[in-house]
Design a protein that fits this description.
Elements (H helix, E strand, L loop, with lengths): L1 H43 L7 H18 L2 H7 L4 E2 L5 E3 L7 E9 L22 E9 L6
Antiparallel strand pairs: 1-3, 2-3, 3-4
Helix pairs in contact: 1-2
């Protein structure tokens, strides 16, 4: 009985470790996608402003704030420095120069702060160095003010 346990335990442990590791990676990636989409939705909300540039700046700040709030659990586990949400910059869209595009990006440096500690030696699993997601919002000139 003990010989079988000694032979099978490492294999079963590696399978369980792999399942937990990749499940948390997929969960973190899903959270990043959700946060980018939530930031995009926040950028579409009306912001009271006097000029179009001021309205775009307010929408970009709202997008950054909404995306950041969606990442709270990941920041609590991985650390604040591992997850970043840069301020979106409004620029002319490639498809139509009359439209303004806001790109909401979120990144998580998984290599610097993994959710599950790595195993030592040859037993470590291949994991991504960085997870990221983006959402692009197109805003027409009539919807700015």
């Amino acid at each position: 009985m003990s010989v079988e346990f000694v032979l099978l335990f490492p294999v079963l442990f590696l399978i369980l470790y792999g399942l937990i590791t990749y499940a948390l990676i997929f969960s973190a990636q899903h959270t990043l996608s959700l946060a980018a989409a939530e930031g995009g939705r926040a950028a579409l909300r009306y912001q009271r402003a006097d000029t179009a540039e001021e309205a775009l700046a307010l929408r970009a700040a709202a997008a950054q704030s909404a995306a950041g709030q969606s990442l709270n659990w990941l920041r609590n586990i991985a650390g604040v420095d591992a997850v970043s949400v840069p301020l979106p910059v409004a620029q002319a869209c490639a498809s139509d120069a009359a439209l303004r595009c806001l790109q909401v990006s979120v990144t998580y440096d998984y290599q610097a702060a993994p959710l599950v500690p790595r195993l030592l030696g040859p037993l470590s699993l291949p994991t991504p160095a960085q997870l990221s997601s983006e959402a692009v919002v197109q805003i027409g000139p009539m919807q700015l003010l």
